[in-house]
Write a structure and sequence with these properties.
The structure is a homodimer. With about 160 residues, chain A is mainly α. Chain A has eight helices and no strands. In chain A, helix 3 runs antiparallel to helix 8. The longest helix of chain A has 25 residues, at about 5-30. Chains A and B meet through helix 1, helix 6 and helix 8 of A and helix 1, helix 6 and helix 8 of B.
C-alpha cells in the first residue's frame, strides 16, 4: 500500500468532516415530518424548513464557487437566502427541498471526489486572480472548511427544537 | 519569499477557521452581561453560561489530547460536561469562566503555533498506537477540525437567544 502523503491526509480529514456533517444533517432532517419542519427552532426564530432550504441554497452556491458547474437551484435564493423566514408566503415543500438537497450534495460529493490537493488550492470563483496572487488562502479548501462550519452552526440550531 | 507548500496551505486554512471561530465566540460572549449569560438560549434549553463553560471544558480537554500538556481546569468537567445544565447549583461566575476560557485558548494557540504539519498528523492521545497504524486519520488535525465544528455548532445556538 502506497504511503498517503501529508497533504492527502490533511485533505481527507477535511473531507471527512464535511461528510460527517452532511450525514448528521440527513439523519436529523429526514427524520422530521412536514409538520415538525414547519416549527420554529425557538419562539420567533427560523423554522426548520427555512434552515433546510437555506443550507441547500448555500450548498448549491458552492457549485460555481468551486468550479463544479452552474447552479442547480437558484430559485432557492429568494425564499431562503435573500429574504428572511416567514417573508415569502409559499415555500417549496419539504419533499421538494429534500430532493434538491440530495441532488446538490450529490453533485458536490462527485466533484470533491475528482479534486486533487492542487485543485482544492486553486482560487475560488469569488476572488480575482490578482487578489488571489496576494492572498493564496482564498482557495477552494477554505470554502470547504467554512461551509462545513456553517452546516455545524445551523445543525446546532436545528437540534434545539422541541421534540 | 519562499513558496508555501501545499500541506502548509491546507493546515493554515484549518488554523484560520479555528481562529475565526474563537474570535466570533469572544466577540459574542464578552459582550454579554452576567444576567444575559444566565438566560436560556430557548425555553427549557441550556443557558449561555453553560455553553461557555462547556466549550471551555472541551477546549481544556484538547490540551492533553493534542499532547500540549495537562488539563488546566478539570474542575469544569462536572458542571459543564458530565452534568446537564441546571443540575449543579453553584456554577463558576462569568468572570471566572472568561478567565479560564482565555487561558485555555491562549495555551492552545501557543501550542498550535509550534506544531509542524507532521506534528498535526501524529496520533491524538485517545487512540492507541496499534489502532492508529490502521487508522491514520485519527490524528491531531482531525481533533482541530472537529472542535472547530463543535464551536460553530454551539455558536449557532448562542445567537438564537433573545436580545
Amino acid at each position: 500500500m502506497a504511503k498517503t502523503s501529508n497533504e492527502e491526509l490533511l485533505l481527507s480529514g477535511a473531507l471527512s468532516a464535511w461528510t460527517t456533517n452532511i450525514e448528521r444533517a440527513d439523519k436529523l432532517l429526514f427524520s422530521l415530518t412536514p409538520e415538525q419542519l414547519g416549527k420554529e427552532i425557538a419562539p420567533g426564530k427560523n423554522r426548520l424548513i427555512y434552515l433546510w432550504g437555506h443550507l441547500t441554497a448555500v450548498h448549491d452556491l458552492m457549485l460555481p464557487l468551486l468550479g463544479l458547474g452552474p447552479r442547480l437551484h437558484a430559485e432557492l435564493d429568494e425564499p431562503f437566502l435573500t429574504k428572511a423566514d416567514k417573508v415569502v408566503a409559499n415555500l417549496p415543500s419539504a419533499e421538494a427541498i429534500k430532493k434538491d438537497w440530495n441532488e446538490v450534495n450529490g453533485k458536490l460529493r462527485d466533484g470533491f471526489a475528482k479534486f486533487s490537493v492542487a485543485d482544492w488550492l486553486q482560487k475560488h470563483a469569488s476572488v480575482s486572480a490578482e487578489d488571489f496572487a496576494k492572498e493564496p488562502h482564498r482557495n477552494r479548501f477554505a470554502i470547504l472548511l467554512s461551509r462545513t462550519n456553517h452546516l455545524s452552526y445551523h445543525l446546532g440550531q436545528a437540534v434545539i427544537r422541541d421534540k
